[in-house]
Amino acid sequence: MILTEERLQDLLDKSLAELPLDTEWAVTLEGSIAEGFGNPSSDIDFLLVSRRDDDLPTMPSLLFVDGRRVEIRTRSVRQLADQFQEVERTAGRPARLSEDLLNRCQRVLHSHPLRGHALVEEVKALLPVERFRRITADWWAHRARQSLRHALALQCLGESDEAVDWTRAALVQSVKSWAAGLGETYLEPKWLSMQLDRAGRADVRDRYWALEEAVVPSGDAGAARAHLTACLDLAADLGLTGVPRKPERLTVERVARVTTWQTGERVHVVRGGRDVFALGADAGTVWRSLVLGRPLPRVLAESAATGVTDPGPLLAAFLRYGLVRLVWKGGGAVTPALPLAAPPGPVTPPPSTARPLLSVRGAAVTGARAVDLMPLPADRFAAAAMALVWSNVVVENAVEDLTGALRRGQRRVAELTARRAVHAALRGLFSAHGVNPLPADTDLVRRMDLLPAATGPIGVRAGELLGRGVDSAEDGDALRAELRRFIALVRGAMGADSFPLSFDSAHTWRATLQLGHDWLRMGAHLGAELPIEEARELLAGNGAQPHQAR
């Protein structure tokens, strides 16, 4: 670890002195420092364990001790046992296994006891580490398969650039599955470089980085296909089963509660009983040509036979918006997902700008290939607002992580953390324009066409930053400065110029909590989905963290 036992005990003493604790606790260190990673900006994660019977809060208390950010979480033995049991119950269905739950269990199992060692070890024994390795490896493997199948579909539809992004996502997930089987179960991918070094297989590490860093020219379908094939080969060599090779195994299927209504020549598609999409002439023609239950290549061929030029992107839009779905023969629905990102699911674009909105012939559209959404309902507006606040918190956290990584010369960690900051900033921009649920992070730059044209330069700048590497200390300093300018540009466009520097001090953290609470009240009233589980406790506590400093 980068901190000595003596230093950790000192930080623990000072942290506990600030909290109104009224019982005896076992204490263990969680997170990246306990794992042997970390840097000067890494927070100190203390988990306090008690035999108390009452439910202890999930949300941590955030303290600032001797220049370090300290998070204090409290859990009862019963709560930890429930977490482990839930993981076991869901282990055979990795699609239903919560990333948050898996992460909480992983942190406990790989924690470093500081006090009450016997109780900590008793808790860890509730889920054998070998069993947890298998569960985590299977969870990553499931996600890798989903991403590879999605990439194959996108390649078939002519969306090669997007296919490359999902191929890279699948590459990370495949290697994380393999590494988890060797004991490297830490979920967050930003430390992957260190995990691969520690795994002791230079051949796998070098092959991974060669593929991850491979340059695939934009719009080059042949290069994208070759890159997908190489990643499929590596995934198979690492033991991933069910690796897709034939797009014919992908079938286009109906989605529950999606219905079609035609008024004159205008095709309207109603999703979930409340979202109405109006299709332009070409989009409507492709939609009417769909015969569901058929293989994707055949559906694409039948769409092309209608005379509509390049129907692939229109089919991709239908998939993206959840109007149809893909099913892998013998493997269920294709639902790709990324770690530490927006949850999987259909994308909802901003409302149509066409006016007048309706006529006797149906809804107005913005063009022949339009798939326009009518104005947003109130609950989605509230959900987008909450996502806007949370994305800005993530931006501040990522910038702080970047600073620490640069101080320690952790080049690859810095690169991944900078990308996280860019993606989080873009999530905020999309949320500010009413996009909710959000696209996957890897899709954000390409989905800038959902936003007003004035935001175009932001997308260009984001694409440049996402491609930046850190080859020297000077590169790192330049990247950090450019990232701050980018964040300022995005915040100016979405009216968040005065967003507090959340992790700068206790004062700015309180301001962040209050800002989030203001939006949470509206979201809860409207029944909107909350951005993180801890938000419920923030709402119940009227904007205060659960453990108040003395």
Automatic annotation (TrEMBL):
Gene3D superfamilies per UniProt: Beta Polymerase, domain 2
Name the UniProt record assigns to this protein: DNA polymerase III subunit beta
Organism taxonomic ancestry: Bacteria, Bacillati, Actinomycetota, Actinomycetes, Kitasatosporales
